[in-house]
Amino acid sequence: VQLQESGGGLVQAGGSLKLSCTVSGLRFDDSAMAWFRQAPGKERELVACIDWKGSGTYYATYVRGRFTISRNNAKKLMSLQMNGLKSDDTAMYYCAASRVPFMSDEEADFDYWGQGTQVTVSS
Q: What is the pLDDT of residues 58-72, one digit of tens each?
């Protein structure tokens, strides 16, 4: 199983970025997916998750209303549209996949992880 993130970079506060995660070796349409992030010196935290159909989503309070998670099962692709970026959003962002189709906000429920893509927001 391989998960590959892309789309990170440097952006000014208030700007936007779109992250993508491509998946191989996994029954993608049987898997819930999520984005996590980890800032320097902090624990990894959930950003958003999405169920196997894409009809159910959950957002952490600190990104709700600014970020949108989506998926395209035909392309085995998950995305995270990030708008209104703040300096607090600076972190390494990780794509994660579960072996079950239902959403979870627990890191332990996600079995597969990408290498991460860096997002840096300058103030």
A: 999 999 999 999 999
